[in-house]
Amino acid sequence: MRVMGVDPGLTRCGLGIVDSGTGRSVVAVAVDVVRTPPDLELSARLLRIATAAEEWMDKHRPDVVAIERVFSQQNVRSVMGTAQAGGVVALAAARRGIPVSFHTPSQVKSAVTGDGSAGKEQVTSMVTRILKLAEAPRPADAADALALAICHCWRAPMLDRMAEAEAAAQAARRKYTARLAAVRRAQAAEARRAKDDRGTGRQSIGGQAS
Known about the structure:
Blueprint: E1 2-7, E2 12-20, E3 26-35, H1 42-60, E4 64-68, H2 76-95, E5 100-103, H3 105-113, H4 120-130, H5 140-209
Parallel strand pairs: 1-4, 4-5
Antiparallel strand pairs: 1-2, 2-3
Helix pairs in contact: 1-2, 3-5, 4-5
């Protein structure tokens, strides 16, 4: 499986490609950081990020795109920019029919370092070690993009099993609901027949009496 990891951001957007093999084997294919100047119009910055992401998708043909999930931060402006950058990348993937998966920072850190609260240097160090890189990827956005790809490679089997289990549970619920509805319909029909039979019996008795 080939995964494209994306660490979204307006000023720096990290992109990384990782191939997964048997077990937990992962190999780095490419990594880079897309930069946009802060004085550029927002739409132009998003266009640069989207264009770069599209070029990577067309060149590397990933099976899935893993993007960092933005949740709460104190800097609302920074959150908005990060979410917008991640959004244009997700849109580019959707247009190509590439599945998109989102992972929180703590999930990525936990997968790569075993500690959901690990710092950036620890993440960079573990990414370098896991991928057997000659040198650490810089800046941190590049390492984070690779970490996202690694995280998805390792979490995907579990996510697939969870999805299969949920699908099976939903199918079982639908089957149970349908069976219960059929039983209730049968009971209602039986109750109507019994009521009709009682009514017919009273009419016969009344007719004999007269």
